Amino acid sequence: MYKVMLVDDDYPTIEFLTEAIDWESLGFELISTHENGLQALEFAKQTTPDILITDIGMPKMDGIELTREIKKLKDSIQVAIISCHNEFSYAQQALKLDVQDYILKESLDPEDLQKILLACKERLDNNTTKVIEVKKLQHKIKVNHDIEHQKLLRQYIQGSSNKFLDLFKQANYSIPVYFYINDYYKVKKNFISSDTLQFAVQNIMQEIIDSQESQQSYCIHYENNKGFVFYQHSLTIKHDVHGTLKQLLRKLQEALNRYLSIDISFVVSQQVENNDIKDSIHSLLNSEEQIFYANKNIIMKKSEELSSYQGQEMFDYYQNVANQLKQAIFERDIMSFTNHLDNWIHFCVSKQYSSKIVKEWFLRMVLDLKMRLRTIPYLQSNYYVESLQEEVFLLNTIYELRNWLIEYAQKCLAETNQQLKDKYHKDVLSACYYVSHNLEKKLSLDEVADYLYLNASYFSRLFKKEMQITFVEYVKQRKVERAKELLEITDDSVGSICEQLGYDNQSYFIKVFKKIVGYTPLEYRGKQINGVFAK
User: What is the Cα–Cα distance from 244 to 242, expressed in whole angstroms?
Assistant: First the structure.
């Protein structure tokens, strides 16, 4: 609905027009009525109308002055002037203000005013349509322009074309800056598509760059959450180029945070001659190690390639932490989970392990946890291996890895929180916890019943009622699930796994495994390696 303001110092006229026009049915909202122009202007500063109907001769501020002031607030406002015969000179002034509708008070007719209102509405509709079409065209041109810059950059990096350098004719020197969106895996969920996100980020950054620079600098998207700012300048000792650039990058961070709630980090290279810019671009693209251990929303200088440690002790430490994390998941203790994970993160940071190695171990840790969830009947994970790998690939820093894994654990636990409360008896849950903690032992129903201070017969009936299987069968299932996990993530022999699960007789263990899984342990391991069970 279009908003209408009615201004006239003759109260009967205001009352007549207010009652005579069915505003809502025509698509209008009468937002206010006023007896003088000054009062109307103050209201318009808070809520500007789309259509103004005003008398000319009024105290404090006449209709001509009111029209002039309101047009400063909204140039597209439609104005209808109510006037007497003896105010022709005022009418001439109204025409100069592009007032197209003029009503004589002596012959004021609601039908005439209704026609004028509908004419105003049609003009507003046309104006809106034109604005939308223009913006669509501008957006299309902008997108095509950005895509062309991306294409030129990629061709230049690959060595197939030097046309990219044509963008740098206004200056001899540039400072290449590599940027990446922090927590991209979270940010992208707030946008319709990754293309929309990329355009929004690039559009804001380029507008700010254009408003600050006399020489043309560019923001060019590269891939996913990454891109470049090419800051052009002329070499001079009178100007602190790096200081000015840092101020600009801070403005970009502030704007993206304010308008899109996005944090972004920058890696700044040294200034180079534009003809030699390719080496700097390649160096920035290979700055994963520096980025991996950096905090978010920072501006840092490109350092020399960092040495990345690949010590063997990481495996032993990882095994210990992985077991602690899996146990915390089973006990639904997210605080303990976070503490153990933070210990692992601190260990990796202190050793400065290669980002590639840490990511590989991290993905293995996630898959270990996924299998751990599978061994617990009331905890299910809906993540597939492929989707896990895709999300992990988008994580830039070790701190993003940490936050992602905590959220993953929280989500898995939250999915079954109510189910646990509603479905399972506390003693049955305690029994499940006990079994999980003691899979390496020979577990008997009497032992667990004693642990819970319950009569063995009562516990047997309660467990079967809750879990729909006997306690003995449950223990077999949990041991087999643990065996599957060990077959998938270790090279341990079947005999070794059999001993780790408290079985004295390997043949019996193989028989139990095949009955539940449908394959022998070795057959299962072979199919797992070949991807038959990968999910």
Answer: 5
Which residue from 261, 134, 142 is spatially nearest to 199, judged by alpha carbons? 142
Q: What distance in Å separates the CA atoms of residue 89 and residue 83, rounded to the nearest whole number?
A: 11
Distance CA(312)–CA(319), nearest Å, equals: 12
Q: Which pairs from 501-506 meet CB under 8 Å and 24+ separation?
A: 501/439, 501/440, 502/439, 502/440, 502/441, 502/442, 502/443, 503/479
DSSP 3-state of 181:
strand
- Report how far residue 488's alpha carbon sits from residue 482's, in angstroms, rounded to the nearest whole number: 10
Q: Rounded to an integer, what distance in angstroms lies between the CA atom of residue 41 and that of residue 63?
A: 10
The residues, any chain, with a CB within 8 Å of residue 145's CB and separated by 6 or more, are: none
pTM across the whole model: 0.57
| CB burial readout 327-361, b (16+ within 10 A) else e | bbbbebeeeebbebbeebbeebeebebbbeebbeb
At 464, which amino acid appears? Answer: K
Distance of CA 278 to the CA centre of its chain: 31
- The phi and psi torsions of 268 (rounded to 5 degrees) equal -100, 125
Grouped pLDDT means (10 residues each) for the chain, 535 residues = 87 84 87 88 89 84 85 84 61 56 72 83 72 53 72 88 82 88 86 78 86 76 88 68 89 89 92 86 89 92 68 68 78 86 89 84 77 54 58 85 88 64 73 83 91 92 89 91 80 89 92 92 79 49
- In this structure, the strands spanning 226-233 and 173-181 are antiparallel
- For the beta carbon of residue 522, count every other beta carbon within 10 angstroms: 13
Asked if residues 78 and 120 have their Cβ atoms less than 8 Å apart, the reply is yes
- Do the Cβ atoms of 483 and 501 come closer than 8 Å? yes
Q: Is 174 helix (H, G, I), strand (E, B) or coil?
A: strand
Q: Which residues contact 383 (CB under 8 A, 6 or more apart)?
A: 370, 408
Q: Give the tokens for residue 125.
A: 């509709």
Q: What backbone torsions phi and psi does residue 66 show, to the nearest 5 degrees?
A: -60, -45
Joined tokens for residue 165? 């350098």
Instruction: Return the pLDDT at 430.
Output: 82
Residue 467 in contact with residue 427, Cβ under 8 Å?
no
Q: Virtual CA dihedral for 52, 53, 59, 62, nearest 10 degrees?
A: 70
Coil vs helix vs strand at 228? strand
Nearest to 56 by CA among 112, 8, 19, 20: 8
DSSP code of residue 396: -
What gap in Å lies between CA 37 and CA 55, rounded to an integer?
9
Q: Is 300 exposed, middle or buried (0-12, 13-18, 19+ CB in 10 A)?
A: middle
- pLDDT of 95 reads 53
What residues does 127 pair with on adjacent strands? none
Q: Is the dihedral of CA 13, 16, 20, 26 positive or negative?
A: positive
Rg, the chain, Cα only: 36
How much is the pLDDT for 381?
A: 46
Instruction: Tell me the C-alpha distance between 314 and 325, whole Å.
Output: 16
Instruction: Report the pLDDT value the prediction gives residue 307, as an integer from 0 to 100.
Output: 55
Handedness of CA 417, 456, 477, 489 (dihedral sign): positive
- What SS3 class is residue 104? strand
Q: Are 435 and 478 in contact (CB under 8 A)?
A: yes
